[in-house]
Specification:
The complex is a heterodimer of chains A (about 260) and B (about 110).
Chain A: H1 16-25, H2 30-55, H3 64-120, E1 125-135, H4 143-155, E2 160-163, E3 167-169, E4 175-178, E5 181-184, E6 187-189, E7 193-198, H5 201-208, H6 214-218, E8 226-237
Antiparallel strand pairs in A: 1-7, 1-8, 2-3, 2-7, 4-5, 5-6
Helix pairs in contact in A: 4-5
Chain B: H1 2-17, H2 29-49, H3 54-78, H4 81-108
Helix pairs in contact in B: 2-3, 2-4, 3-4
The chains are: A alpha+beta (about 260), B mainly alpha (about 110).
Chain lengths: ~260, ~110
């Protein structure tokens, strides 16, 4: 720092104001160019510094201790956040597995309902099976023969049976002879009888056709009916029974 | 006149180019700017007193900036950078005030 700040008293008649005015009017001295260059550098540096300061003033000029403090705070915050993330992930996993087990339970219940519905005859079913047509021109086929046929089919693993597209044969079904036909579950069926059964087509067909079996029985001379067995990949059983709440039976202890 | 134009050009350059401050320069630039301001105000006062010398101005400008930077550097090395920067700013601020007071007296006669 040199001595231009300590002015010696100057007897020059023109005062500062006049000198300033004059220099603004006649801008040509060598000194002014140098001053201009240095002022340009100063302006440039000042603006740059202001810009840099605007950008982020939180950490610039911070001491080492402050910076360590900042870092500690940040790592604490990130630890907290990570713990929070872990907790939320746990919750999410728990919820997800909850949903999964609930869905599994629902699926199992649905499966069971389907199975029971098929067994109880409360839902329409479709599947491979046989269609047995019993023609009876002489009126010899009755409940005996039909019952035998149904039992053979059951034996062979028939899962659903329907008679004449009108009656679903279930555990509670009953057959009774009546003049010119058979009453099954209160409905009068007349020949030709069509027994539709769902199961393994081959097993079912075989079960009906053995010595002394259903077909033999129907084609006996004193009955004299005709049986036609047709294996099919799609047998549709559309009739259902209304499930009746049991009046006397109650579930007992299992196992 | 040319001096004012130079200052204007510098400011405009800074605004247009928007330079990044290099990381090694970051601690020194603010102090250097204040030191340069002190030199400029001293020069203006000397000019108004009629004793302005461009050689003296250049030397005082450069030495002000360098000394300010060295003080900050030393302060950082000694672990008292913050305090020393504050001290430099205070001293330069006082000088700027007294210079501006002298300038004011010249221009406004008050």
């Amino acid at each position: 720092m040199t001595d231009e700040q300590t002015p010696t008293p100057q007897p020059a008649p023109p005062d500062g104001r006049a000198r300033l005015r004059e220099s603004l009017r006649r801008p040509s001295s060598r000194g002014q160019v140098i001053v201009a260059v240095l002022l340009a550098v100063l302006g440039f540096a000042a603006v740059t510094q202001v810009k840099a300061n605007d950008k982020d003033d939180q950490y610039v000029g911070a001491r080492q201790g402050d910076l360590v403090q900042y870092i500690n705070n940040l790592s604490l915050a990130s630890q907290r956040t990570e713990a929070e993330i872990a907790r939320l992930q746990q919750t999410r996993d728990a919820l997800r597995s909850d949903t999964r087990s609930r869905r599994t339970a629902v699926e199992r219940a649905q499966q069971q309902a389907d199975t029971l519905g098929i067994m109880a005859g409360t839902v329409p079913v479709v599947g491979s099976g046989v269609r047995v047509t019993v023609t009876d021109e002489k009126g010899g086929v009755g409940s005996n023969q039909l019952l035998e046929g149904l039992e053979e089919l059951r034996d062979a693993g028939a899962e659903a049976i329907e008679l004449n597209n009108r009656v679903r044969v279930v555990a509670q079904s009953s057959l009774k002879d009546v003049d010119g036909g058979v009453i099954v579950d209160g409905k009068v069926l007349r020949a030709p009888y069509v027994i539709e059964a769902i199961g393994s087509p081959h097993d079912l067909a075989t079960a009906l056709d053995f010595k002394g079996g259903f077909i033999d029985e129907v084609q006996r001379p004193d009955v004299d009916g005709q049986v036609e067995t047709q294996e099919s990949d799609t047998v549709e059983i559309s009739t259902v029974v209304e499930p009746a709440a049991p009046q006397y039976a109650k579930p007992g202890a299992t196992g | 006149m040319i001096a004012a134009v130079g200052l204007l050009i510098g400011v405009l350059l800074g605004l247009v180019l928007q330079p990044e401050v290099p990381i090694w320069l970051e601690p020194y630039l603010p102090i250097a700017v204040v030191a340069a301001l002190d030199a400029v105000f001293g020069a203006l006062r000397a000019f108004l007193d009629g004793i302005f010398d461009d050689k003296v101005f250049v030397v005082s400008f450069v030495s002000n900036v360098l000394i300010a930077a060295v003080i900050v550097y030393l302060g950082d090395k000694l672990g008292v950078g913050g305090q020393l920067s504050t001290g430099v700013i205070v001293v330069l601020g006082i000088r700027i005030f007294s210079n501006v007071a002298a300038i004011r007296r010249h221009i406004f006669h008050a």
